[in-house]
Amino acid sequence: MSELNYYIEEIDRLNLFENLSSNAKQLQSSGMALLSIAKLPTRKDESWKYTRLDDALAKNYTWEKIDPQISYSKLSEANPSFYHIYISEHGVTHNIQDPGFKLTHINNCEDFENIYSTKNFNDDISIILNQSYLTNGYCFEFSKKYQNERPIIIHYNFIHPLSNISLVNQIICEDNTDVDLLEDFNSSEEIFGNIYTRIKLGQNSRINHVNIQDAKNGSLVLQNLNASVAKDSTYRNNNIQIGAKLSRSNIEISLEGELAHCDVHGLYSLHNDQHHDTSSYIHHEVSHTTSDQLYKGILADESRGVFTGKVRVEKDAQLINAGQLNKNLLLSKKAQVNSRPQLEIYADDVKCSHGSTTGQIGRDELFYLQARGIPRERAQAILARAFTYDVVLKQPNLAMRDYIVEHLTKKNVVQQL
Which segments of the chain have a pLDDT < 70? Predict the structure, then answer.
């Protein structure tokens, strides 16, 4: 039995159609039809050339249903600098009392039919699997002119070993909204996490979005982010990948209105035999749009990183500005990275750039610090911290930035100096 056959039979056994709305049933049925003819990607599939799922999916994870009930709690022990939403096997608890915010189960989301519509990843196996397991997920809605007083953290914490956590979330920001949102995905056991997030940003709006993936080493985590940005709006993303044995991030940003802008910045820090793969696609659909992308990797031991970034500029998308840069720091001779920045440009009046660098800590920099009495190990930590902070300092919200630094310090990605 192939790895995908196991998941097809498990879906049939679980009867996941129960209690789904008609729209959700139709979407899941379409996902099952795609899954029945799908194959695991191989080296011949360009987008998965350096990442294999065979061994990871062969563990035969058991699907975990999340209680759809949503409850409110004061969460007195939670960090008061944030609003908090907790998602686990037992359901959802939050402490947001604001008429401009609405949280519903995905089954009750009104704007739901085109949630899986993508331009670059529509046949990706991670999305097909997520759609086939369409039962868990939530819709986060921010009404017109909403501005959160403090950032919101969505905590994902799963404790059942070898569980299959499939989630589809939709984040809707209406016109003139201003939202700071941080997602912290972690687990205390080895799991298979498959998270699909759809973000719709209305006109003249801004969302500052951080994603931290810190699942237990040994886990498989597949994440898809699909964001559409309307006129005069800004989408900012910081993607921090430090957990799981094998992880993959598909990021698709569509700039659909004039003066739309996106900042997409990421950091992957890998140890032992960890493997992370980022595939990003930024689509300039109209004129006068801008994008900036910086991805950095720190790789130690026998870890491996993959970065594939594509910027596409349509024929009528004149007067755009797009920058893309991937930098990697190798801390071991056995660490590997594959970097593939790409530009696909069909307009003639544009300013686009891309680049990639990979190397080890420079001997001159080490010598400079050691000559001033700093031990070699501490000198390496200082240089690695500086390399990391190029991405961390891209986060403008100080509370969210401190949260990222605390996480990185706890995992020894950066050391206290």
Answer: 1, 412-417
- The residue with tokens 């809707």 is 172
Report angle CA 100, 102, 107 to the nearest 5 degrees. Answer: 155
| Neighbouring C-alpha atoms within 13 Å toward the C-beta of 239 | 27
C-beta separation of 49 from 307 below 8 A: no
pTM above 0.85, yes or no: yes
**Pairing of β 320-330 and β 163-173:** unpaired
Secondary structure (H, E, C), 4-30: HHHHHHHHHHHCCCCCCCHHHHHHHHH
Take residue 409 and report the two structure tokens written for it.
């310090």
Query: pLDDT digit string (tens) for 220-229?
Result: 999 999 999 9
Cβ neighbours of 154 (radius 10 Å) = 22
To 10 degrees, the CA torsion angle through 265, 198, 222, 323?
A: -20
In 3D, which of 240, 307, 247, 308 has the Cα closest to residue 274? 247
Q: What is the CA radius of gyration of the chain?
A: 21
